[in-house]
Amino acid sequence: MQKDIGSVMGLYPTPVTVVGLVTEENTVNFLTIAHVGVVDHGHLLVSIDKAHEISDKGIKKHAVLSVSLVNQSMLVSADYCGIAKAAATDKSAVFNYHMDELEYAPIIDEAPVSMTCKVVDSIVAGNFTNYILKPVHTYVQEECLNERGKIDYEKADPVLFEFQSAQYLTTGKVIGKCWVMGKAYKQQ
Ligand SMILES: Cc1cc2nc3c(=O)[nH]c(=O)nc-3n(C[C@H](O)[C@H](O)[C@H](O)COP(=O)(O)O)c2cc1C
Q: Is the beta carbon of 113 within 6 A of some atom in ligand 1?
């Protein structure tokens, strides 16, 4: 029996990411963003509160940023980037990073997956700017690639987030193949 708990956003867990950017003052900043999504096969979305003014203005100025998945060994640092504010704290040394030709999208060296992205659009919803991003380069730890050169998400081990109880979860194990399992469906 289901119970109606009201108008509650139940679409969790979502992947935890760290967004890397360069501010208007040309300093590197990292902030944690878990309201993320796939828009189509080639674009993703990060939802950033306008109150994160320094980060938001940096993204608008340079129109590029990085989005990195977070594994368990990065989690304390990633959570810190979701607590500390750029206005009061220099977070540029929290992760090791380097730049590619996008110049203003710091790639986190220790991330299992780090994408440098161009901002191609943005949609304002309430106090949030939802940036639509086109990944230009996707950097993956070699040990997280399978023999076909695809990302092995069991090895990448991305951490997930849920807002209801404000907690992190692990991803878990592969339990089946998409577009295959359904072939065993039988009408009751
Ligand atoms: C797990 C987690 C997820 C978060 N997700 C978001 C998010 O999706 N959007 C957002 O605007 N802020 C999110 N935050 C809050 C920002 O990361 C946080 O306010 C940060 O300190 C802003 O940094 P800045 O001042 O350097 O921009 C999240 C924080 C945590 C810990």
A: no
**Whole-structure pTM value:** 0.98
**Residue with CA nearest ligand 1 atom 29:** 82
Q: 35 in helix, strand or coil?
A: coil
- Asked, for residue 1, whether it belongs to a domain, the answer is no
Q: What is the pLDDT of residues 140-185, one digit of tens each?
A: 999 999 999 999 999 999 999 999 999 999 999 999 999 999 999 9
Please state the length of the chain: 188
**Is 87 among the domain residues?**
yes
Query: Hey, what are 18's tokens?
Result: 């760290």
Ligand 1, residue 168: give the atom nearest the CA: 1
Q: What is the mean pLDDT of residues 85-103?
A: 98
31: containing domain = 14-184
pLDDT for 188 beyond 90: no
Tell whether 2 is covered by a domain.
no
Say if 6 falls within a structural domain.
Answer: no
Q: Ligand 1 centroid to 148 CA: how many Å?
A: 35
Q: Which atom of ligand 1 is nearest to the CA of 82?
A: 17
Check which CATH number belongs to the domain holding 29 and give it. Answer: 2.30.110.10
How many domains would you assign to the chain?
1
Cβ of 62 below 6 Å from ligand 1 = no
